[in-house]
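Q: Focus on the shape:
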Amino acid sequence: MSGRLAAGIVGALGAVLFLLVCAPDAAAACGISYQEGGGVPTPVGDCANGPAIGAAAAVLTTTVVAGGALAIVSVLRTGLSGSDLADALDAARQVGDTATRPPEAGGRADGPTSAMGRRRDWADPGARPRPPAREPDSYLAAGDPVYYRDGATAIGYDSRTLRVFDSAAPRPGYHDVVVHGLPNGLVVPGYVGSDGGDHPGSPTHPHQIAEAVGQNPHYRGGPVRLLICHSARVEPGAGVPPVAQQIADALGVTVVAPTDVVGVNRYGPRRQVPQVGNGGRWVSFQPREPGEESWPS
């Protein structure tokens, strides 16, 4: 009996697996599809080829239900020995393994799946920014939020940018500029994604930063301190001067900038003196004469 029972269970579960794998095609023919990234059945049109496919699916479903019922009746009438139960469970396990195995290349799925059949490559939450919770004072031409206060300008609205903007102790006589900088010399305003986390945005040109500083109603000229990581350096062969030099040229003022990461302690009090990490230092830049190609290193 164990062989017949195991075969019956395998057949029934195999039919169920067939429905799970092939029913989406039949459903799509009847005007139902799965939205990308949503996993929710959604009507997309009228049923065109549905009658024949629907009838076949109905017959197969009825067969599966009937087969399952007969298997249950057989168990109730004859009982299962220990070996019969082990055989049946092993057969069911094999079908289950097949059902949860990721499809081979060229299969139905568009990407890798987990054991529960869910895609692991859902859209990055960083691709869906949240609106700023804090109302910006202005925007760059590229659309990045800008914040002003007396003695400082911030670009971007991620938590780290606003923390430095609010907590950095001022350097007497200097105007602070806060925005994210990368080791390769790019400046990238941060934003908050749909997951609530901080994410880097698209690079912005140093001239846009200079324009934002010049539009701060509290700025009336004078030296600038860049709280922008790596803004005093640029990769060899980049062909452009560091961000600090470009801002010094654009504003026509002295600019002080860090060679490495810079910031404040996230758990510290307000009015912290910004620190340069990894043994970095502050470098002073002066506006250059037209045609001058050198800068401090």
User: Anything to note?
Assistant: Residues 127-285 form one domain. The chain has two domains: 2-100, 127-285. The radius of gyration is 32 Å.
